[in-house]
Write a structure and sequence with these properties.
The structure is a homodimer.
Chain A: H1 3-12, E1 17-18, H2 19-26, H3 34-46, E2 50-55, E3 63-68, H4 70-79, E4 88-90, H5 92-98, H6 105-133, H7 135-142, H8 151-187
Antiparallel strand pairs in A: 1-3, 2-3
Helix pairs in contact in A: 2-3, 6-8
The structure holds a DNA duplex.
Chain lengths: 188, 188
DNA sequence: TTAGTCATGTAAGTGGTTACATGATTAG
DNA sequence: CTAATCATGTAACCACTTACATGACTAA
């Protein structure tokens, strides 16, 4: 049982889902491909943490709809309060930033402009997702209704927005510095 | 040549370093253990991107001091302007947050308080590192001197501080929500 | 005397990505 | 007619972690 397994169990606490749906819904929280998820689900089923019912579909391939079992819920409840591992972040951009002086300021500008575009796209996506949760959810959560089924989703989205915004602001600040440098070198 | 290799090359643009020093200095930018770095350095040496001189030490084990070669610098200059891969973040805390309703509010509080402590520690560390760079560096960088040897380090530290601060603020906000919930349930 | 730092390496195992494989339906 | 979505799976590979291994010096 690795971290991803607990992530899948966490999603299943909201109701039954197919492997395909789990694969899509885990993405914003934990990046994983279907090739990692399908074998894991099979393993978890063998160990009794989840079970599935095959569902035949017309016009679409058949699917397996998974649910969390009592055992699975117990395991999840035990795991959540345990000491949390340090977050792991890997971003090529940090390495490139470290040696940004190696390339011309025009190329450097492109690099950061591309990043800004990426963060803008993410921010829009998150804002759409918050809208989808509805304003009733928003007021319920900000009043402290932890038991609301969307509590987790909402506060995670808030965090994602704050992170993207802070990284975007940083990119803009670096662009300003590059601009200052360019002006300085022209004046010479 | 994977991403970590370019990270090591990036560090070596600042001057020669031993494998051990590289291992320590890459940590804030890219997490990697010595067991991954030493074989990589050997491979990069075989391919001509770096070379080393063995340095004998008294009172300490001997070491290999690596430098970047012309070939290595060329490879790095080619890599930096290339399209940048999406950042990967994996944080157990997000999964736990998603199903925070499963545990009691006292346990939930502990989880977030521990995190706040972690971020506080990180922030202090980053602030010490910025201090070490010196206030002359700070003014030089904020005036846009990209060519300054500490430019990359400084702007990366600024980003790390902003990230930690935004995550810390989020944790505090979640604690407030948990507190609101607790008060609400007591009044009932 | 125990733990920590410096310093390098290998071996085994886990976690994660890419590619291979199939196949029907739908939208541009 | 091409690409995307739905849906599941396996195989090979790469990236990363943990554990094994050694050894001298230093500070609590």
């Amino acid at each position: 049982m690795n971290t991803l397994s607990y992530g899948l169990l966490a999603l299943l606490t909201r109701g039954p889902r197919s492997g395909y749906e789990l694969m899509q819904q885990i993405q914003p929280i934990w990046q994983a491909k279907h090739s990692q998820i399908y074998p894991l689900l099979a393993l978890m089923e063998k160990r009794g943490f989840v079970h599935y019912v095959p569902v035949a579909q017309k016009d679409k391939p058949d699917k397996k709809v998974y649910s969390i079992t009592g055992e699975g819920l117990d395991a999840l409840r035990e795991w959540v309060p345990e000491p949390t591992g340090e977050p792991v972040k890997r971003d090529e951009m940090l390495l490139k930033t470290y040696c940004i002086g190696l390339i011309g300021s025009d190329q450097a500008r492109r690099l950061f402009e591309d990043r800004i575009q990426m963060y803008r796209g993410k921010l829009e996506k998150y804002r759409r997702m918050i809208e989808e949760l509805g304003s009733e959810t928003e007021t319920a959560v900000t009043e402290g209704h932890i038991e609301h089924p969307c509590f987790g989703s909402y506060i995670l989205l808030k965090r994602a927005v704050a992170n993207a915004q802070s990284d975007l602001d940083w990119c803009r600040w670096v662009l300003e510095l590059i601009h200052l440098n360019h002006i300085g070198s022209v004046e010479k």
